[in-house]
Amino acid sequence: MAQAVKRLFPQVEITIGPVIENGFFYDFRRPEGFTPEDLARIEETMRAIVREDLAVQREEVPRAEAIRRFRAMGEHYKVEIIEGLPDDYVSLYQQGEFVDLCRGPHVPSTGCIAAFRLTSLAGAYWRGDARNEQLQRIYGTAWARKEDLDAYLARLEEAKQRDHRRLGQALDLFSLHPIAPGSPFFHPKGAVVYNTLVEYIRSLYARYGYTEVITPLIYKTELYKQSGHYDLFREDMFLMALEEEEYGVKPMNCPGHCYLFATRKHSYRDLPIRYADFSRLHRFEASGTLAGLVRVRSMAQDDAHIFCTPEQLDGEIERFVEMTREVYAAFGFDRIEVTLQTRPEKFLGAVERWDAAEAALRRALERTGFAVTILPGQGAFYGPKIGFDFRDVLERSWTLATVQIDCAMPERFELGYVTPEGTLATPVMIHRAVLGSLERFIAILLEQTAGKLPLWLAPVQVRLLPISEKVADYAARAVDACRAAGLRAEADLRSEKLGYKVREAQLEKIPVIAVVGEREAAAGAVAPRREGAAEAALPLDAFIARTVAEARMPGGAS
């Protein structure tokens, strides 16, 4: 693609062009940008390059030589990239007149490329930093067979229809604005979804023995220096200097929970202690990486930290896995893949603690019957991690639930409890979340369901549709009765045709529609509609009782 762009637009500067899942992109510096018509021309030139069947040749050159070559070509971004590389030699690939910097490997010749398509245009900042110049990004995809390409393009079109940003606007759930990058505004309907998710998780906390805490939003940075996050996470924090002290808006809850645990003396009889926290978190994600609700700067998590004895560890991990299974079943998430992520090169804590923690996670997974993929070196800097990955209807993989054993923070905060023998011991600390970021989970759920949320979670559960003004008063009384029973109900009292009202309710993904005519009003009944099909009229009381039962929160909570 980059070769085609340079043939058509020689003054364009090339930057980076990595492979991504199901495709690739390349960023270019072209102040006037590209148009859809340009994409068509680029694609046609790419096809010509394929027909030329140019040999692709790899060459390793000294770093200084590569810098000289790209500087002579006027490719200043490539020069900057190479200057930042630690290697003495770099690899270049050449096909015809085009040379690029790449690790490789590549196909032997351009003629090997069978099926491809340029899919979209976007803006991007150099190195993902909004302070840098904006570049033009071209996305594409390539496949071994045309049939595979066609199938992927069909999934891509389906993904556009399911895009949570489109659905969020269409369903009036949330919006994003330049005044607060990465910080969504949840509208009234979106706030219902958000708060109902929190209510559901709280109902589980009551059963699984968690106690909820509320912790500060802003701390002195000495807290993060003690936890180890300051050195490793400082660039991703919102920091400020006040009264000659440095403060940070919290990006995670764990240091605060450690501090809270340390404020009191604990006996082994007190453990396990399970702190749950829905406090807001803020992380300074680069402007170029923000993406709807999937990647934000302001979020809340169903976050919790467990402090327990070594003897309680296996049981706590198994309880978490049980809770995770229950939650996923409630949302119909049945395609789950589990990973165990082990000690990275840079880590905090003793190797012996890491080995014991990894062994405990392995035992728990073996007992719960999950098939596990080991990801060496991908654990957090403070402990190994289990990740539960959900594969959605579009075949994308999302990591949702995570559980980690902390091998560093209990000692860094000098946490302790009194053992049965009267000695002081260090507790085991577990980090865990089931949904993860609520914002991200809502995005995933919207795309999985195409906006058709389960009845218990829908912001409007019932909409009454009076056929005429004559029955508007009855429809309003029916709404009052629904609300009195705990349903989220409303009536469409506009003077519109019934077909129009039905269609609009369907587009708004209202789960239960009930039509009210003169016959229903006289009988104290409603005529429900589900999935676009009319049902037999029901007495209002029976309709409400049935809907209340169907709208019950998973796990029995009302």
Structural notes for this entry:
This protein is α+β, with helices and mostly antiparallel strands. The protein folds into three domains: 2-163, Threonyl-trna Synthetase, Chain A, domain 2 (Threonyl-tRNA Synthetase, Chain A, domain 2, 2-Layer Sandwich), CATH 3.30.980.10; 174-449, 2-Layer Sandwich (BirA Bifunctional Protein, domain 2); 462-556, Anticodon-binding domain (Rossmann fold), CATH 3.40.50. It is built from 18 helices and 30 strands. Helix 1 crosses helix 2 (36-52), helix 3 runs antiparallel to helix 4 (76-83) and helix 6 crosses helix 14 (438-449). 32% of the residues are buried.
How would you describe the shape?
globular
Structural class: alpha+beta
Low-confidence stretches: none
Give the proportion of residues in helices: 25-40%
Radius of gyration: 28 Å
| Terminal CA distance | 56 Å
CATH top level class name of the largest domain: Alpha Beta
Number of strands: 30
Strand % is 25-35%
Q: Largest sheet, described in full? A: 9 strands, mixed
CATH homologous superfamily of the largest domain? Answer: Bira Bifunctional Protein, Domain 2
Could you tell me the mean pLDDT? Answer: 93
What is the structure about, briefly put?
Helices cover 36% and strands 27% of the residues. With 558 residues, it is α+β, with helices and mostly antiparallel strands. It folds into three domains: 162 residues, Threonyl-tRNA Synthetase, Chain A, domain 2, CATH 3.30.980.10; 276 residues, 2-Layer Sandwich (BirA Bifunctional Protein, domain 2); 95 residues, Rossmann fold.
